[in-house]
Task: structure prediction
Amino acid sequence: MQQRVLKLKAQQQIAPNTFELILSGDVAALAYQPGQFVMLQIPDTAHLLRRPFGIVTIEADRLHLIYRTVGVGTKLLSQCRSGQLLSVFGPLGNGFPTAFLKPKQEVLLIAGGIGMAPLLGLLKRLVAHGIVVTIIFGVKTKAALFYQLELESLAKVYYTTEDGTFGFHGNVNSLIEAKLTQAHYQAIYGCGPAGLLQMIARRYQNHPHVYCAVERPLACGIGECYACVVPARQQNGYYKACEDGPVFSKEQVVF
Ligand SMILES: Cc1cc2nc3c(=O)[nH]c(=O)nc-3n(C[C@H](O)[C@H](O)[C@H](O)COP(=O)(O)OP(=O)(O)OC[C@H]3O[C@@H](n4cnc5c(N)ncnc54)[C@H](O)[C@@H]3O)c2cc1C
Ligand code: FES
Result:
């Protein structure tokens, strides 16, 4: 866990309100597990709290993030230009557990919208280890999809759109019901809105390896303020998304 000042190398819009951000600097030695995140300082003195973003990849001197503009911080970030210096703190949190997987085993990745961002790094890591990956990428409408060619070069991909403009017309649950009830996966990984994660936990309730990354508004990002609590399933208590997560098994928490 380290703080670094990185230079904005490139930023481009890849879908409506969705941006790819490449930062460069002294990151080559940072070990990370897909699912971990960084806290990024928005370059504006009125917004002191750093914002969390899942690590897509760290390759050579490049940190790759993908984000959606939802509020003032991400809007300001989208206006940053090449050469802008940005302070980044991390990697933080845990990551997706993968040590139990063996080459040629099959896994399922389920992404809702921008939830694809942290799953991209996981996809690359799994494929590099010889794991066979199927992806379900669910969005509201075709325009919200991104990185299709890259995904399809690495995995079998099913798309769902709520308005039927691309792929399967409906939600992720109805796609699984229609096409994937017979499939068996060694592990299921998810990231996206709470409703999607709840559906994954319900549908795969008897599966031993179901892991999802939760999104909670964070403040400190390092376990000190309790802004990010997630209710525990087995006990009267809470986990902290920033420190104990953001990845949890379905047995640990109520998504
Ligand atoms: C571990 C983690 C990893 C994340 N990774 C990514 C990522 O890779 N790409 C990405 O686009 N986003 C990611 N997010 C969400 C991202 O951090 C927020 O969208 C961002 O902080 C919003 O900042 P803002 O200033 O634009 O919005 P604000 O002005 O702070 O808030 C705008 C609205 O968004 C809501 N909001 C803010 N933060 C969150 C949050 N974390 N979860 C749900 N609602 C929120 C607020 O309640 C408010 O309604 C991640 C969040 C976490 C906790
Ligand atoms: S954000 Fe402060 S404890 Fe998690």
Summary: Residues 106-249 form a domain with the Rossmann fold fold (CATH 3.40.50.80). The pocket of FE2/S2 (inorganic) cluster (ligand 2) is lined by residues 218-221, 223-228, 240, 242 (CB under 6 Å).
